[in-house]
Amino acid sequence: MFALVLYLVVIGAGTGGELCVARAMKAVGEVKDFRPSALLRLVPRVLRLPWMWAGVTLMATAFFSLLAVLSTENVSLVVPVTALSYGAGALGGKFFLGEQVTPRRWAGVFLVCTGVALVIVGRG
């Protein structure tokens, strides 16, 4: 049961963090200049955004939860199960960020989730 909770935290917090960071970066706008000086000027703008801090916090939570679940479960199970974040990411992109998710992407997400189901069922 504890491992299940950790899986849910890894998937939920990791995907939530990525969605928050994406929202913050959409607010900043497209980065076109990748020279070090331009990137250094971008950092203060990004750090003023609450979405960025929420994203970093959620991603850190996911990371430490991943470490915890790896201490109790086999990596051959953990890595495939965390791939469920692809499904969560597609849903979050559609409903949280308002992105258009094409049928081809949904098909890919379905295939990934089907693969995860096969790994879970065959874990015996």
Number of strands: 0
Which regions contain 5 or more consecutive residues with pLDDT less than 50?
none
- Residues in β-strands, percent: under 5%
Broad structural category: mainly alpha
User: What is the assembly state of the chains in this entry?
Assistant: single chain
Order of helices and strands: HHHHHH
Overall tally of domains: 1
List keywords for this structure.
124 residues, mainly alpha, 79% helix
How would you portray this structure in words?
The model has no long low-confidence stretch (mean pLDDT 94). The chain has helices spanning 2-28, 36-47, 50-70, 75-82, 85-95, 103-121. Helix 1 (2-28) runs parallel beside helix 5 (85-95). It contains 6 helices and no strands. It has one domain. Helix content is 79%, strand content 0%. It has 124 residues and is mainly α. The longest helix has 27 residues, at 2-28. The chain is globular and about 50 Å long.
What's the layout of helices and strands?
Blueprint: H1 2-28, H2 36-47, H3 50-70, H4 75-82, H5 85-95, H6 103-121
Helix pairs in contact: 1-3, 1-5
What's this, in brief?
With 124 residues, the protein is mainly alpha-helical. The protein contains six helices and no strands. The protein has helices at residues 2-28, 36-47, 50-70, 75-82, 85-95, 103-121.
